[in-house]
Amino acid sequence: MIYTITANPAIDYVLHLDHMRLGAVNRVPQADLLAGGKGINVSQILNQLNVANTALGFVGGDVGKILEKQLVTKAINDHFTRIAAQTRINVKIKAGEETELNAAGPHITATEKAAFFQELAAIQPGDVVVISGSLPASLDKDFYNEIIARVQHVGADFAIDTTGAQLLESLPKHPLVVKPNHHELADLFHMTFKDDADLIAHGQDLLAKGAQHVLVSMAGAGAYLITPDHVYHSTAPKGTVKNSVGAGDSMLAGFVGTFTQHRDAVEAFRYGLACGSATAFSEDIADRAAIDALLPAIQITTVN
Ligand SMILES: Nc1ncnc2c1ncn2[C@@H]1O[C@H](COP(=O)(O)OP(=O)(O)O)[C@@H](O)[C@H]1O
Ligand SMILES: O=P(O)(O)OC[C@H]1O[C@](O)(COP(=O)(O)O)[C@@H](O)[C@@H]1O
């Protein structure tokens, strides 16, 4: 079983308009309310790949009710902890370029946090827990470390998609995979990469610090997979980008879902690329048909 954790889910309010004028009234011809939050996006793709999974996290208030309905529509195996405070709304403005406004998130009480850990107690040896996204402001920074400690105690594995110190602290605990995008990887080292060799060297540093696999995504430029034996690269397939929100989550889901089935990192990379790009070419998170249509176009090369 794969468990996804979305500590800070959201309703994504996605606004499509030709131009955005700051400081003026903008009329918006297309507005969509979508279930958001990185772990929920991962669960959606796992469902499309027929990989059994359970979604954990916190949900509450009237916004939470909208989210709960979407979880039912999307057949997400909802084991979210119900909270008193309001789930956040994140605003995504698609006006030529994409601007995202991600809110801080609700207050979680100590009782609610304890109820979450009761749900997490279901994990078994060999399960994989996918931890992704930001923490609501009221959860202390050690929340992910607490989860990882419990995962390791039962002999399960974990994957983590977060940034900064949280990502660095997780590495000595040997995550199955980490997936920074190239900007996040550069930020980790407080630098700008000179070239791809520089990027690869810093990806390999995450491996040396303990990660089992490192995926470095580069949006429309594709991605690198770094393993202890080889470095692999693939360009992204070509297509019309409709909404790239969730592309990174989809890539992580494709990788973890496939790796847990076949234990083959290159095949997992192939699915990760297809899932990421399929989501970028869809209004919402990709469906199976969109993923399958892209698989033949993925060409992975071994860099070294
Ligand atoms: N514009 C795009 N065209 C084609 N594929 C894309 C595009 N944007 C994202 N993808 C696919 O999704 C993957 C993850 O996207 P990326 O934007 O790097 O992640 P994140 O959402 O975490 O920043 C990419 O490696 C690529 O396979
Ligand atoms: O938890 P964070 O970092 O605020 O991110 C939440 C946002 O991330 C998303 O899951 C999208 O993630 P990516 O575009 O990075 O794949 C949105 O659905 C959501 O609004």
UniProtKB/TrEMBL annotation:
Gene name linked to the record: fruK
Protein name, UniProt field: Tagatose-6-phosphate kinase
Enzyme category, top tier: transferase
Any Pfam family hit: PfkB
Top-level taxonomic group: Bacteria
SUPFAM superfamilies the record matches: Ribokinase-like (SSF53613)
GO cellular component terms attached to this protein's record: cytosol
EC annotation from Swiss-Prot or TrEMBL: 2.7.1.144
Domain Carbohydrate kinase PfkB: 10-282
GO biological process annotation, one example: lactose metabolic process
Species this protein is from: Schleiferilactobacillus shenzhenensis LY-73
Catalytic activities: D-tagatofuranose 6-phosphate + ATP = D-tagatofuranose 1,6-bisphosphate + ADP + H(+); beta-D-fructose 1-phosphate + ATP = beta-D-fructose 1,6-bisphosphate + ADP + H(+)
GO molecular function: 1-phosphofructokinase activity; ATP binding; tagatose-6-phosphate kinase activity
Pathways per UniProt: Carbohydrate metabolism; D-tagatose 6-phosphate degradation; D-glyceraldehyde 3-phosphate and glycerone phosphate from D-tagatose 6-phosphate: step 1/2
